[in-house]
Sequence to fold (430 residues):
Amino acid sequence: MNYYSLNKKAPNTSFKDAVIKGLAPDKGLYFPESITPLPQSFFENIDDLSHSEIAFEAIKQFVSPEIPEDILKTIVEETLSFEFPVVKLSESISTLELFHGPTMAFKDVGARFMARCLGYFNKNNDREVTVLVATSGDTGGAVANGFLGVKGVNVVILYPSGKVSDIQEKQLTTLGHNIKALEVNGTFDDCQAMVKTAFLDDKLTSKMQLTSANSINVARWLPQLFYFMFAYKQLHNQHKNIVFSVPSGNFGNICAGMMAQQLGLPIHHFIASNNANNVVTRYLISRLYEPKPSVQTISNAMDVGAPSNFIRIQEIYENNYEELRENLSSYSYSDDETREAMLEIFNNFKYVADPHGAVGYLGCKEYLEENPDSHCVFLETAHPTKFLDVVEDVIKEKQPLPEQIQSVMGKDKKSFKISTYDELKSFLLA
Ligand SMILES: *Cc1c(COP(=O)(O)O)cnc(C)c1O
Fold:
């Protein structure tokens, strides 16, 4: 598959180059040249397919011929070595739990898939690739874990000192080997600005191959379309219209769901559930797209003022506002509403949701008021103990720490403190 830049000022390129570059030379996001729907029989027989088989069929066209089929089979099997259960809360609402991976964030799947693709492309290459990533919390851990031990790939993670949770900090600073954590004296925006400067620094990029591991990278973005297929497999026998409510920040996950729909998956409608960072909610009402600086909320992985993947959504709908509106609703909720939803889910269904999932739940409820015959699935994007303070404060109950979290808590943090871009640059060149 070839990919083109959405800025349309760079040459089309292969999957391999798109993964290694991350962003096109004209700074545009890459998008596949074509999307061929899967045969009807694939969806009719989905009950007979394993998760790996579903994923293999779904992603094949996007990565071939650069990744041979036997290698791709191994990559998806290794990527998907954990569960993706749907938990039914009521006749009309279910949740798809995406937090059973090694760092208990849904980003594990994209990070693991991308790491294996890059490892494959780089295995006979003497030029190392450096993955440079800024994190406000969950991306860093998933990327660190996914790339640990991948030959020919170094990972450098920038995180804002004192602004990620203890668990998140342990997940990114304790692995060692090819993973380095830089503790930045500043905010997440400062970290992101340094990463951007590095990508634009010709002196640096002429000396080393830098790539990103955010959802702008096609190898991290596309595998997220698997989730929607796994949920469909578990729910299609109910014979109701299936609707997904996706707690959204950079809109990579929901955009991947729309790719699954383009492949023919019978998804009736999407809901982009937002916290106070609601540029898309406002766009669908006013038709005006007005990004704003992000504001801090308790669902902090969605604190994004200018969602990077929205441009890919526009491309899927060929910039047709009416068509997009037909297929996408968007709602926005305050932190108070989110806390109330967490309590309601706990009291009514004996289920503990994290703040992001709770925002998704609210999206389902609002949509179902107008469309009571649908079945709405909200994505649980992180395990509730990753947001322990908020969760325990709301439901007034101690939560046991899962094994994945316990195993990092005892380890020693190793980070390197920096304050300026020059310090980052010296670190990278050393
Ligand atoms: C990253 C993240 C999101 C937002 O996903 P996008 O693909 O950026 O829209 C939601 N919830 C959690 C827990 C996340 O880590």
User: Anything to note?
Assistant: The pocket of pyridoxal-5'-phosphate is lined by residues 105, 107, 138, 215, 247-253, 301-302, 356, 381-382 (CB under 6 Å). The chain has 20 helices and 14 strands.
